[in-house]
Amino acid sequence: MNAASRGNRLFDVVLYVLLFISLVACLAPFLHIVSISMSSNKPILSGQVTIFPMELNFSAYSRVLADPTMLRSLWFSAYLTVIFTVFCMVMTILAAYPLTKKELKGRRFVMYLIVFTMFFSGGIIPEYILIKQLHLLNSMWSLVLPLLVNPFYMIIMMTFFQNIPKSLEESAELDGSSHFGTLVRIILPLSMPVIATLSLFYAVNRWNGFMDTLFYITDPNLYPLQLKLYQMVMNSMMTDQMQMEGAQIIQVLPESLKAASIVFATLPILIVYPWLQRYFVSGIMLGSVKG
Amino acid sequence: MRNINVYLHRYWQLYAMLVLPVAYFVVFRYGPMYGVTIAFKDFNLFQGVSQSPWVGFDVFKQIFKMDAFYLALRNTFMLNFLDLVFSFPAPILLALMLNEIRSVLYKKISQTILYLPHFISWVIIGGIVYQAFSTSSGIVNTLLGKIGVAPIPFLSDKYYWIFTYLGTGVWQSAGWGTIIYLAALTAINKELYEAAEVDGAGRFKKMWHITLPGIKSTIVVLLVLKLGEMVQIGFERPFVIGNVTVKEFSEVLSTFVYKVGLQTGEYSVATAVGFFQAVVGLVFILTANYIAKKTTDEGIL
Known about the structure:
The complex is a heterodimer of chains A (291) and B (301).
Chain A: H1 2-38, H2 41-45, H3 59-66, H4 68-99, H5 107-119, H6 124-133, H7 151-162, H8 166-174, H9 179-190, H10 192-208, H11 211-216, H12 225-234, H13 237-245, H14 254-288
Chain B: H1 2-35, H2 48-51, H3 58-63, H4 67-87, H5 89-100, H6 104-115, H7 122-133, H8 139-146, H9 158-185, H10 190-198, H11 203-214, H12 216-228, H13 236-241, H14 247-250, H15 253-263, H16 267-296
Transmembrane segments (chain B): 12-31, 77-98, 119-140, 160-186, 207-225, 267-292
Membrane topology (chain B): Multi-pass membrane protein
Family (chain B): Belongs to the binding-protein-dependent transport system permease family.
């Protein structure tokens, strides 16, 4: 008995230590970036800044906030994300609701049409050519229209709709409600968890999306934040800019400027994330156990 | 005829709802599938998809002669396979650990932190990685230097680069991957644990003999599906983490298609590569699904 409980305690110790290491590994890169963005040049250059900021200094942030192209990208990304999420949710609901009706003729055909696209696609070049021929290059719609319905999310939504008791819909119909009325007045109010989850997924996908922006957007006025950030972080553009502007402004290291931009671009996600967390866990479970 | 009218009168709203989504799928999902025909054509942007002359399999003959194509194909398989070896077990281990945590608060906090990297874009992850792992001022090499280790070229030596690539993958996906295993764990019968306790099993024994077998079928299904995606590879991760110095390993099919197609304008060649990838991918995923159904009768289709 004694040996067993000692074994259990050892188990607990190992467990908590391992998990703690995992948590640190998850957080440390963020903390490091935040610290770099808020530290002075000297400790950064001498490599002293690890996960705590040293000699607090916010000049990198004032530089980022003073950059009009950065702010423009932020606003454009925010605007794009909101428009995108609303459009996607409306379209996903419009697709999911009728397809849950087993008696609807042609339902299976439409379902096959949609599910097939999960496993086979034209590929990025034909997509690019389509966007070009529709004259959508350098338009925000090139970042919205090609992604309107994610079939996987649509199936999650269908699973949710199917779990709503049939009797609710039937009684609404007896009262003379149309399908559209039933959807708006009965189904949607009951579907807030799945709507919140999928909105979060769509929004995060758009906010973080980078590939299509790289392909379709060449006009700097329409750079979403990720593309802007990519140009800044990956190219050496930044250092040239700094040298050009010379010594009149307080010198800010490219490292801390990049770090501040990264924090700046991550912040919106960090703000909404805790609010929606409880929804997406149940949402993704719903999707995964469809079997 | 009357019946059809009655039916339509009853259901027209549902069909009306479907119009826009179906139009979307036809235009934006099936439209590009029609565009795939340019893999069999000498595509010219001015003549468009339909007017360009057919050339049969000439473009495919051309890509099967390209060394760069085989390199991208090899790297795709290699990186996916290594990812499977390193990234696949990580969420299982994490889920097993989370499952043993008895403090509800600690578990909640851990999950919140572990899911977080999944919501960070690859551009930002790339930025963090380049900041942290550079040889000149990166924190990792600075710390290594303090314990007397020479700078390690995590980003510019192709062999070290693989570890950087794999590490970022684990970091980004391990926590998120636990969700599905945690869901599977809730289905395990609690009485099994009580019975094992009566038999004197310690916590490790219980984990090994009850918890792990309890999620075995989930593991198998996900493993088979991963195998089905061997030829598919996302664009953003290799593109952002990769660079010129390591392109011998970082050039994969998706980045290759981008470079050949959009940067050098050889649309037909790039489309043919994409088409090859899509077809092989479809075969892989259908085979994987078949195997998953056979082994666990829990397929995904």
